[in-house]
Hints:
The protein contains 1 helix and 11 strands; from the N terminus they run E-E-E-H-E-E-E-E-E-E-E-E. It is mainly β. It has one domain (about 20-135): Roll (Pnp Oxidase, Chain A), CATH 2.30.110.10.
Amino acid sequence: xxxxxxxxxxxxxxMEFPEDLEERECWELLASASLGRIALSxxxxxxxxxxQYYLAGRSLAICLGQHRIPxxxxxxxxxxxxxxxxxxxxxxGWTVQAQGVTQLSxxxxxxxxxxxxxxxxxxxxxxxxxxxxxxxxxxxFIADF
Length: 145
């Protein structure tokens, strides 16, 4: 099914609806990337931070980098996480979003708590309780810019 939208110039452009992904494919796509974003509350204010991550089974191990997040903002807190990728040639991509509760990690499979350097930041684990993903095509209105 496609939705027809009109650009400002009056030309018809076709924009397809995103394709929903199964949870298995969401995990596969997350395994193919290493950069994402975490949304959390820091001192009662919302924050969205770029982070590196890796998969530890069915858990996301998220390195908070040098953001210096207070432990009270990440231990046992509900957070949102997102990762995505875009192919500039095909003008298509994918996105995966997850929500879950975080847990600070002291040791993860032999990796130190601090992402390899003592001052590089904490690693937190999130076991997603909700996960959704989509494949999509980029907006046709932006293609001409």
